[in-house]
Write a structure and sequence with these properties.
Layout (H helix, E strand, L loop, with lengths): L2 H25 L24 E2 H18 L2 H18 L10 E2 L5 E3 L2 E2 H18 L2 H17 L11 E2 L20 E2 H17 L3 H18 L10 E2 L10 E2 H18 L2 H21 L10 E3 L2 E2 L4 E2 H18 L2 H18 L10 E2 L19 H20 L1
Antiparallel strand pairs: 1-2, 2-3, 4-5, 6-7, 8-9, 9-10, 11-12
Helix pairs in contact: 1-12, 2-3, 2-4, 2-12, 4-5, 4-6, 6-7, 6-8, 7-8, 8-9, 8-10, 9-10, 10-11, 10-12
Amino acid sequence: MNNTSELWLSQLEQELKGNILNFWIQHTVDVKNGGFLGEINSSMDVIPEAHKSLVLNARILWTFASAYRMYGQSEYLTMADRAFEYLQNYFTDKKYDGLFWMVNAEGQPSEDKKQVYGQAFVIYALAEYHRATQSPEALEKAIELFHILEKYSFDPLHKGYLEALSREWQMTDNLTLSSKDMNEKKSMNTHLHVLEAYTGLYKVWKSDLLQHKLSELIETMLNHIIDQDGRHFHLFLDEEWNVKSDIISYGHDIEGSWLLVEAAEVLGNQELLKRVQGIAVSMAEAVFVEGIAEDGGIWNEAHPNGLMNKDKDWWPQAEAVVGFYNAFQLTGDTKFKEAALGTWNFIKKHIVDHEHGEWHWGVDENLQPLSNEPKVSAWKCPYHNSRACFEMIERLTLTTKEH
């Protein structure tokens, strides 16, 4: 291992343990109501009445289960256990199964629809928690949720998964994930995270049915969600896969490039893996050419005729480090390794919050932190940045062992 990689590895571990994980342990536990605080603003003021999202709580569980699996430290297990128990006691719908999308500060359901994106994150988190602790209950619940999604969300006619259903798992017109999203039956984002969830579950449960569904989902994404040139995702689609959006999301493109490879690797189907690897490199190449700013940061989104805004949010930066490094591992082309390192240096300089800890939501075109965006919220979670560190630590460590 060369000096650059050794230095990088030590920086990643320091960022992960000393900054990201430490921040969530110190600042986000909700002592009054249980679980974790729903929102902290950029000035570190707690918003006590903030509702708590399924996504935030599932991502906290995933993050600290991963941390415990890698490092075995008791404080990481304490956080994972707390998240697991809160999901069980407050988010789980005891009457209709699945989990609520949102609860209020006291833990009462405030949005009771079954958003498939949220259910997928719970599968992802439970599988990782089982992987870290061998909890039979966590695996049982992850498998149960898998069967529920296949029963209610899977589209047997056109394949793929519907965005959302009512509390009772009936069809609903209220499909949107957030205020930024279109109200369409299918989205790239939900399929990407069902893929991620099923990949995580397959690591701990080698079911023939799951193997089939994960293979089918990869094929669906290759056939319908990635454009014909194999360069970008289509973000929103109707039931029959007609494309409804022309926006490019560089963060999702680079994230999806490595998650697709991981899914195919876990399945072990060499023919499928080869196809996926080709697409992954093509997508990484497109982000490399179109999505990197001169400062090494990754742009958020573009229209076909140019950038939509000049902000750079935290999560595309995190995913770019892994996605570019994955492309380097697949091709040996050092431009991808340099891009990964360039984005990492951008993160250290501009995205890490050196005053309060954790990461800023993002920076504007003048590289000033977006002070109106929260530090902790329904969507600002410890998962993209911690996962980038976990992935890179594992990949760089593996490289060390091979040399």
